[in-house]
Amino acid sequence: MLPAFFDSMVELITKTSTDLPPDVRAAMRDAVRGEDAATRGGQALTIIAQNIDQAASCDGPICQDTGMPTFEMKVPVGANQIALRAQIREAVAEATRRGKLRPNSVDSITGENSGNNLGPGTPIIHFDQWEQPDIEVKLILKGGGCENTNAQYALPAELDHLGRADRTLDGVRKCILHAVWKAQGKGCSPGAVGVCVGGDRTSGYLHAKEQLFRTLDDTNPDPRLGAIETAVMDEANKLSVGPMGFSGKTSLIGCKIGALNRLPASFFVSVAYDCWAFRRLGVRVDATSGAITRWLYRDPAIPSQPMLAPEVVAAGFPRTGREISLRAPITDEQARSLRVGDVVLISGRMFTGRDAVHAHLMKHDPPVDLRGAVLYHCGPVVVKGAGGEWTVTAAGPTTSIREEPYQADILKRYGVRAVVGKGGMGAKTLAGLKESGAVYLNGIGGAAQFYARCIERVVGVSLMEFGTPEAMWHLEVRDFPAIVTMDAHGNSLHKDVEEESGAILETLR
Ligand code: SF4
Hints:
By secondary structure, the chain is α/β, with parallel strands linked by helices. It contains 15 helices and 20 strands. The strands form 5 sheets. It has a 5-stranded mixed β-sheet with strand order 2-1-3-10-11. A 5-stranded mixed beta barrel has the order 13-14-17-18-20. Bound molecules: iron/sulfur cluster. The site of iron/sulfur cluster (SF4) has 15 residues, from helix 5.
């Protein structure tokens, strides 16, 4: 056992979860500057920037989904990998106990959450040996929303709007553009993509994810791949998918491509999509003591450069004066009066509900009266104080499309009037909103610190047997901002942006 290795790993996890690396901050700062602050995309980016600063200042998780902890290790010959793995697992459990990681490890058969981020396959730890004296540990925390937007193509393939993608670098370019277009706002754009050309289905995805360990401002050593990276950055940002899929100038902040040899019969292009909450850091540690000797990606002597001026952060949500205040419970008339594009500020009671709650409500009555309710697609990070009181420390919206099979039925059965989530929902829900007189409100994905500050208190909790992120939390909120992106009149901003960006994609064939 290395005596300081456990503490080093807790520090690495904490810093990774709470403070974005300088290269990602710089890219996001450019995105904020490039977007008109008065547009939907601009408002979303201001909230994201505030959230980044808030997380760093309070050592809180940048996003409530702290993702799948993935460690890439390089160890000298002779290092005890069994002991290192055990200490990393202990550090992951400790960081979870401290609220820096959300309990995210779920038994795939029973649905039970282990509560400490440990379980078969979690965390992911890969070892490599190298002929250097130190140990290198790189960590990435990549959440479920962006993980679900990963894509893998077997070429040749026919792609929507882009036509045939051949087994060429131009075919690779088309696949990446298609993946970015397909992701829309579901992966919390603006995002970054790691790409692997070749390999097999498993090594392709792994190598694609490994590309995300490159800094956003580096140059590909292979000029052929570098040229595709440049072309994709240019073209993807013409798509106008924009922040959170609201339309806008920045859809992608990075494209990093690697290549592996392949079988003659296969030509895979694997795309790992990461969100704006691109949490990646690393350290070198002394192989005898386990103490950190050097940070990777950041210089601890240089404080993180703020995203915004402190007074802008303190001012909170950037208001235009056109916002509509809504107090829950909401009436049918209020819900039907809202239109796509309206910005609302919600106050009153809000109930969280995600995958387990939706499945439960299809077979059981709700534990609370949901008439007029606001249902929040969110799996918060919640900690219990010494007096038994609950505090939400991170609470941004989760990807809503997962609830598409259930949502319309739940609206109809229980009288829910507003659903808050991110990334939008499909045709069935759109029809359900119209039938039941309800709206879909898009929050800013990943803005976990920003939204936690809109929660005045935790009033109660139901269905705790599903685990912390999946339970139904009863929250008292104040001026919680969200944008109407699907209304009770059959309008959907998500559908409009997808069609408009699809038309632009046609021009990039
Ligand atoms: S920012 Fe969005 S996609 Fe990324 S981890 Fe958070 S919720 Fe998931």
